[in-house]
């Protein structure tokens, strides 16, 4: 049972419960997608960008920085020309994979054809 007086925080912000903190840290259109794309191992920046239709360079860079700051993503820079940068989930990030797998499974209920079949059987 959790302590009702517990406080949770990150970067000077406090939250009354762990769930609110988690949602605040992972909110945003692209963070969960980036984590999902990294679940199978390291990816180069360009490979990651190509795998997420609609994301801009600016948004990908910003979201990766934030995920790195939280400790979910590790950035590797190789001293070669041209520069080579790879991203990978940390142990903390790996802990999110089963949660995202459950969300993916739940989201399958909304597959367009299946959803139409469910609604038409009412």
TrEMBL record:
Signal peptide: none annotated. PROSITE patterns: HTH_HXLR. The keyword Transcription applies. Coiled coil: none annotated. InterPro entries: HTH_HxlR, WH-like_DNA-bd_sf, WH_DNA-bd_sf. It holds the Pfam family HxlR. Residues 17-115 form the HTH hxlR-type domain. Keywords: DNA-binding, Transcription, Transcription regulation. It comes from the Bacteria. This is Winged helix-turn-helix transcriptional regulator. It comes from Paenibacillus aurantiacus.
């Amino acid at each position: 049972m959790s302590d009702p007086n517990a406080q949770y925080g990150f970067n000077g912000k406090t939250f009354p419960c762990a769930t609110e903190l988690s949602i605040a840290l992972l909110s945003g259109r692209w963070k969960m997608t980036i984590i999902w794309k990294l679940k199978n191992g390291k990816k180069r920046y360009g490979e990651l960008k190509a795998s997420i239709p609609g994301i801009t360079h600016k948004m990908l860079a910003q979201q990766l920085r934030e995920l790195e700051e939280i400790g979910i993503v590790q950035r590797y820079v190789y001293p070669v020309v041209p520069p080579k940068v790879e991203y990978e989930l940390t142990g903390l990030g790996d802990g999110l994979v089963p949660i995202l797998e459950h969300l993916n499974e739940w989201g399958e209920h909304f597959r367009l054809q299946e959803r139409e079949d469910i609604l038409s059987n009412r």
